[in-house]
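Please fill in the sequence for the structure shown.

STRUCTURE ENCODING:
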């Protein structure tokens, strides 16, 4: 029998289930039965900050209106950005390219998959690249996902 997969986010709680369809369905029912009580466990306004970084400067980047990025193949975009010099920079440039295509929240897997599909050299440790970008204030984590900040966008000269 095939595998089923579900991801559900309630407040700051993320449930990921993968397995036999009957098991996934049973687990999902349990989560949905407790959704209201789970939501009450999460604070209403969670602010994620990086120590030593002014969070007011680290707003989510809006890449709508940047069709010139989305229209380019990833390999060309990376070459134009000089993203072969640093894996951390390559990760950021790939994330910006993905966001320009309409993905507002990304995972390290999204970045790795995009590089693989574009026949680009893989990152040795995508999670480490993300953490370095977060430390510099160029990306912000949100649960198991992340987004590029305005500062990250400015690093590539995107206004």
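FILLED IN BY: designer on duty
SEQUENCE:
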């Amino acid at each position: 029998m095939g595998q089923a997969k579900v991801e559900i986010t309630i407040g700051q709680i993320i449930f990921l289930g993968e397995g036999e369809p009957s098991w996934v369905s049973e687990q999902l029912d349990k989560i949905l039965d407790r959704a209201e009580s789970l939501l009450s466990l999460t604070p209403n306004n969670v602010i994620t900050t990086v120590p030593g970084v002014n969070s007011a400067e680290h707003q989510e980047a809006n890449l709508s209106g940047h069709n010139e990025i989305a229209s380019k193949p990833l390999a060309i975009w990376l070459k134009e950005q000089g993203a072969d010099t640093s894996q951390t920079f390559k990760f950021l440039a790939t994330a910006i390219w993905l966001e320009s295509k309409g993905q507002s929240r990304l995972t390290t897997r999204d970045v790795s998959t995009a590089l693989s599909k574009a026949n680009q050299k893989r990152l040795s440790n995508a999670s480490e690249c993300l953490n370095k970008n977060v430390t510099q204030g160029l990306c912000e984590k949100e649960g198991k996902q992340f987004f590029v900040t305005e500062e990250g966008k400015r690093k590539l000269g995107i206004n």
